[in-house]
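Holo model, flavin-adenine dinucleotide. Inputs:
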Amino acid sequence: MFSSPVIFMQIVAYLCFAGAKILGSTDDLLNQYDFIIVGGGTAGNVVANRLSADRRTTVLVIEAGGSNDVLDLQIPYLWTSLIGSAYDWNSTSTPQSGLGNRSVTLARGIGLGGSSSINAMLYTLGSADNYDAIAELVNDESWSWNRLQPFFGKDVTQPGSPSSPASDMIEVAPPRFYQPTDDRIMQTTQENSEFPFNNNTNSGKQLGFGWSKSTIAPDGTRSSSRTVYLKPEVINRPNLHVLLNTQATRLLQLDRADRTRFNGVEFVESVHAKREIILSAGAYGTPHILLNSGIGDARDLNSVGVTPRHELPSVGHNLTDHSLTTLTWTVNSTTTYESIRRNETLWATLLEQWRRNGTGDFSSSGIDHVACLRLPSTADIFNSVQDPSAGPNTGHFEIIITNGNIFGGPTSDNLIAATLMVLTPMSRGFVKLNSAHPLDKAAINPSYLSHRFDQYTMREAIRSTQRFFDSPAWEGYVLSRAGDYAAVDLQDDNELDAYIRDNVVSGLHPVGSSSMSPRGASWGVTDPDLKVKGLKGLRVVDASVIPLIPAAHTQGPTYIYAERAADIIKKDWDTV
Ligand SMILES: Cc1cc2nc3c(=O)[nH]c(=O)nc-3n(C[C@H](O)[C@H](O)[C@H](O)COP(=O)(O)OP(=O)(O)OC[C@H]3O[C@@H](n4cnc5c(N)ncnc54)[C@H](O)[C@@H]3O)c2cc1C
Ligand SMILES: *[C@@H]1O[C@H](CO)[C@@H](O)[C@H](O)[C@H]1NC(C)=O
Ligand SMILES: *[C@@H]1O[C@H](CO)[C@@H](O)[C@H](O)[C@H]1NC(C)=O
Ligand SMILES: *[C@@H]1O[C@H](CO)[C@@H](O)[C@H](O)[C@H]1NC(C)=O
Ligand SMILES: *[C@@H]1O[C@H](CO)[C@@H](O)[C@H](O)[C@H]1NC(C)=O
Ligand SMILES: *[C@@H]1O[C@H](CO)[C@@H](O)[C@H](O)[C@H]1NC(C)=O
Ligand SMILES: *[C@@H]1O[C@H](CO)[C@@H](O)[C@H](O)[C@H]1NC(C)=O
Ligand SMILES: *[C@@H]1O[C@H](CO)[C@@H](O)[C@H](O)[C@H]1NC(C)=O
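Output:
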């Protein structure tokens, strides 16, 4: 019934960008395109680049935000200031029962590049087991670690790492700016066997402390799906159109494609996709559009007044995210982030250095090391809960050490910070509609720490991190625990739990809300070819199709999925 889908759009505003093949207005739209991609974010731009490489194929990208061609997005150091900015959708969760009913902010990027334009640029892949578990779950070997190798990002520094000969691949590099704390971190890996050094945590075996890899280009600027996959020569392709500041509201069946106005100011228009519509609106945006279109659980849809058009009860369900908390300690040093943040002269000097030659603190996200660690196999939680990790090479939690609190406001102290994440959460949440109005916000409930395994793991991650800083390497440097954390009795589970409830926030890695599942399965939203089950001409390509959250920051897996998705689509349509 969806055989010739049409996109129904609400035009909010237009922007014109000289020199770029970005549409100035909807007047310039073609009557139809071979492919319409909803969301010019991380995954969407990969697909747009690959499909438009065949000049006979017409492609339209519809992006809710703007061009994102601004300095703040290019400077790696400024990434934390982008949270809550004009480049963030500023979403908020529903009250989280696992967090004492607190709501938390859920940053996600808006504008070309999507979340890759505002993220922390860490490029981690998780374990090979993560990919193999998904291939097994969806019963399709082509999603396995080995078979995905051609789609991995281009490591511009480390020979022997997974890489691909394809052009316009996301670039990945180790830190180019060394933090004064790096040596002590490395020393700790030699002093304490709980924290072994791993020289390539992206090899498929992720356990241990390793140097971080980041999507930062050799010139010290952020590398995003906007800068790599939509560079000027791509955006100028005559067969690729990019429509900005346009929020897609829902997908319509052709026979119901009447032109309808939402209100007196804005107007609507429709575009035909000759071949396919590709939803790349992210783990919150994609289920929202599907539900607005009547694709979802009929009972839920009816309850808010949306007419069900295609029964697919899993849409929006199984939303999974990492939970995150940051601990800080005061240190015997003045060369930390805090000193940069409170000293305008130093700030200006470093910014000028970055402008001149792309080096120094401003060329770094501030994250030099990432550690993925396991709970001991003897942990008592395993008496009652089956280990949710994908295998013995997969971490249960992550520790990131930073030379100062990169999330913190101005302070007179100097700090060292550890940011912890539960990598194998068992909590599952949902995205649901609040109303039938397609521009209303959806209810987003990641259900952080609603499963006691997640709470247990966060507790043990905190204890492990404290042992890390109790290592001799930090003597005379780490002075005392800071903030609310200072008063917590680490022996007392209840006190730790209370601290966690009050302080955990989103890990910003939502996946699973439009899960891929085996062909013919009674659950899931897409088949392993990423086509929406039971419909024609509609695919999902973004983080929402990843059915099991990897023990990784999710841009790496998202880029890999998008590269393979583009390959599948090109083969299906026999384009080059
Ligand atoms: C602040 C932050 C920091 C992060 N740090 C890291 C990190 O260091 N490393 C890492 O690996 N991952 C990180 N992540 C996560 C990672 O960036 C995401 O998992 C990944 O980018 C998701 O890609 P996506 O294509 O699924 O969605 P997105 O990149 O979010 O793209 C979705 C796009 O669709 C657009 N859109 C949504 N709805 C509509 C609509 N109705 N109509 C038109 N357009 C629409 C959005 O504006 C956006 O451009 C971070 C995320 C955030 C927010
Ligand atoms: C997010 O909030 C900030 C601060 O209030 C605001 O400036 C920005 O425009 C908001 N983002 C969007 C996309 O509305
Ligand atoms: C959280 O909200 C639920 C439902 O409203 C309520 O039953 C519960 O007591 C609340 N918990 C706390 C800690 O306030
Ligand atoms: C890590 O690997 C790199 C590149 O392969 C190598 O140059 C370096 O010496 C290794 N470091 C350690 C500590 O093994
Ligand atoms: C959630 O995912 C699991 C597989 O991980 C599946 O068995 C279950 O049916 C899914 N639930 C929904 C509501 O889709
Ligand atoms: C601020 O930074 C400048 C430049 O590095 C330095 O000379 C000055 O001493 C700093 N001020 C303070 C108060 O630390
Ligand atoms: C970059 O500029 C700074 C001064 O602003 C200088 O100290 C540094 O050596 C330069 N680095 C390179 C690689 O040119
Ligand atoms: C701070 O470090 C200096 C050496 O750099 C040392 O002499 C001093 O004792 C340290 N202070 C504390 C409180 O440990």
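The longest strand covers residues 267-279. The chain has two domains: 6-68+224-320+512-573, 71-106+172-222+321-506.
Archived with the compound record.
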